[in-house]
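Input chain follows. Return structure tokens only.
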Amino acid sequence: MTPWRMTRWERGGSPPGTDADNGTGEPTTSADEPVRRHEALVSVRLGPSAPGSHLVEYLRHEPCAVDAWWIAADVDAVVRLSADSMTVLHRAVADLRRRAGVEVAVANYILRALDLTTPADPRTGKDAPAWAVSAA
């Protein structure tokens, strides 16, 4: 089932009649709390008879699809999905497996971003030495 056929509660909104139900269909958060997005990187291998154009057309209409890349590897593409709730994210991965002509889909759910900034040296309070800085 795709997100536009789900109830507001299945898409991540609060069940009707609860205190957190704001009537807009959007997740309710306090002023200082950011809206949590759940994301996944899905490795996709197309079936032998599925054209790549079918996957592209499906992703254009999938509301959870954020980015996609063709990959030169054991998989054909990597798709980034994003949703307000884990339920919607799991459903988007399942729909990708069922409806987009995908033979194999392996989902890697993103927990949190890594902090790649150079940390300060805890002993001195100074920034890390120049040789410890990333070359990128």
